Amino acid sequence: MIAIFFTCACMAIAAGNGYADTREATGDNPASAQTPGASEALAESPSGAGVYVRDVEFLLAELPRRAGHFFETKGIDWERVSAEFREQVKSVKSDTDHVKLCQRLLARLRDGHAGLMNLAVKLPDESQGRRWTGPHLHLLARGEQVYVRDAFGNASRQGVRAGAEVARIAGLPARQWLDQCVRRMRDENGYSTDHQALYAACHWGLGDWSGTSFEFEWRDGTELKQVTLIRSGGANVAPWGPIFPPPGLQRLGRQSYGKTPAGFGYIHLRDVPGELPEQLDTMLAALGKVPGLILDMRANGGGGTDHPAVFGRFLRPDEPWRQYRGAGKNPFAGPLVLIVDAGTRSAGETVSAMLKEDGRAYLIGDSPTAGTSSRKEDLPAPSGLFTARFSVASNMRRVNGGRGIEGIGVPPHELVPYEPAE
């Protein structure tokens, strides 16, 4: 249930994320599509359940026809998926259960933009007046070890510190808990890559209703410490990128900017809004003349903007560079380092790929970007109970050897893993 609320809320954000592939999707009108095997399944279905079987069979036929070219890259066994959901739909007794089942089916696409929208079903409110929140803690997985990426608020006051190795979470070895969390989240929602799913588990996976708690055990040197972490406050499960940003940063929209202690310029982009070129003008003017610039796009949630105009802000005035030209009031033409992580999503990935692939920035990060950047398609269900949205073409097909970004991500020039001791 929570998965559907989360997915539907994300649909408005996902719609139209920038730099989409302009090619048209192939395929016939879904309203007239024949679904192989549907008549046999309907004949065997319980009385009154035909509408649910029809929707499931429709999705099982249409999704591989429209998005099946991603299956090999993402490791999807659609025959196994089909067998699983043909069996599970037999137990569906209500519209609510049906919508939940179909959301789980969409999750099998391993698509960070996939989900249900335009629901004709009023879902029950499970909050009981509570807020969905977290324990003021973010995690980081490195191999089999799990570390505290960041601790703040109540977690920090209880002695938890960034860089500490996590021993156990909710009674389980930390990596085992994290792996279970990944499986649970992938059952309910789509994640385009394994590293995107793991990153999500390290942040959103810690969330639950306010007032819930769990036991948390970590190593402080040679000593094991344990506290009870209670979830409270706002949306503190959401990642925000840098662990230790430069001090004294200024804010502009969701962006922040300033200088490092060594005098280099620093800009952290949390999203990619339409006005990003103008935001860059303002931030670059405030930074003035700097010997180099760090463009930090960790935890960038995407959006949509004029990509060539963004590129132009990193060239000399009117300077030609491949298909781009210098633009803006205060462009920066010096050395540019761009930082990404698995939380860099959608249009954040296309901006990163553009600056990397076209030779303007040196890309570093502890992993590739999320790998969820695509052109989407909306497909109404025969029942009219929902519309399925999913990826049908990868953005920036020229990267990754012609495979694009979806299901892969943008790999850095240099992988720079986090060092817990730092």
Radius of gyration: 23 Å
Number of DSSP strands? 20
Residues in helix, %: 25-40%
Sheet-strand content, in percent, reads: 15-25%
Q: What characteristic shape results from the CA principal axes?
A: globular
Strand arrangement within the widest β-sheet reads 10-11-12-13-16-17-20
Structural class by helix and strand composition: alpha+beta
- The count of helical stretches stands at 12
The mean pLDDT is 90
Unreliable stretches: 1-48
Terminal-residue CA separation: 39 Å
Largest sheet: 7 strands, mixed
Structure description:
This protein has 422 residues and is α+β, with helices and mostly antiparallel strands. The protein is 30% helix and 21% strand. It contains twelve helices and 20 strands. A seven-stranded mixed β-sheet has the order 10-11-12-13-16-17-20, covered by helices on one side. A hairpin with a 2-residue loop joins β8 and β9 (223-230). α3 (50-67) packs antiparallel against α5 and α3 runs parallel beside α6. The longest helix has 18 residues, at 50-67. It is globular. It starts with a helix and ends in a 7-residue tail after the last strand.
